[in-house]
Amino acid sequence: VAVPRRYLDIVDLAVARGVDPGKYTQGLGAREMAVAEPGEDTVSLAATAATRALAGIDRSELGLLVVGTETGVDHSKPVASFVHGLLELPRAMRVYDTQHACYGGTAGLMTAIEWIASGAAGNRAALVICSDIARYGIHTAGEPTQGAGAIAMVIRRDPALLALDVGVTGASSTHVHDFWRPLGMREAQVDGHYSVECYLDAVATAYRGWTVQAIARGLIASPGCEQLARLCYHVPFCKMAKKAHLQVRRCDAEDDGIAFDEVAAAASFERQVAPSLPLCSRIGNVYTGSLYVGLAGLLDAQAGELADRRIGMFSYGSGCTSEFFSGVVSPRAAERIAEARLADVLAARERISIAEYERIMALT
Fold this sequence. Notes:
four-stranded mixed sheet, five-stranded mixed sheet, 20% strand, 13 helices, alpha/beta
């Protein structure tokens, strides 16, 4: 995990904008917001995260590098190419970016999984990076949902963190304009309420698709997300995860032909989803990396008790495409995630003032 070295306290932002802090802290579930300086672009964040992920790993084993991002630095040369050079990775490997709003990282992950599962990879591993800077601009409705960071993941046959259920996924795609950023624009454009609707429609379809596959493969006995130990959702803001989980629980109720119990669903959220959100709340939106920030935070907090248990994950990219998938936490996960030193990564940051934040925004 890599994050900018500076952050803004979300309460400071609320006070500066004349907004009740509860609107941001409770309404959005935010605590802090990463602020990227001009030198902390998608490439530098990706390279930093990758360097940390590759610690102790023989880089000659790599045969694929994919960077999922919607914050490219060049219209033709991919972020992956810059990272490949900075890290001096092997020459004999595929290197490229994937883009579909916040789904781009998952697109890279699925490509890597299927490349390995097909046998085409041989004994080689893949490096998948999600790196983005979520920017909406000062004094905009999306301002408190900004953020930045990168997550790098090594994908191999003998995973130390999570063994993904290959071929057991549910997908949902629709041509919509809920979020976009035309060429030449630095700030994203978003129809917030419509985007939430698109997200909820997508999670229902994708989750039901996964359920069919999971039952067929014997991973679960019948419809019902309670058979998953935990769930991680794409989080443009933390409260979106609660909306998503209530939608999943609503699907379960409909498919079982019973009344939806919102109280029980809220309790389920606290048990199954809330443990994945504290890290997200301290970084903000990382677009392609948001789901995986949640996963990292969950494993950092609970990997020991989740060993050999299955968790579910939902990735959403505006525009839109989405996927629900799952995996089993490795008995080695607690040891491996400890090496990421997430607490140290956050502790090394500097809290900045509103004036300094606005100065940086004017530069970038």
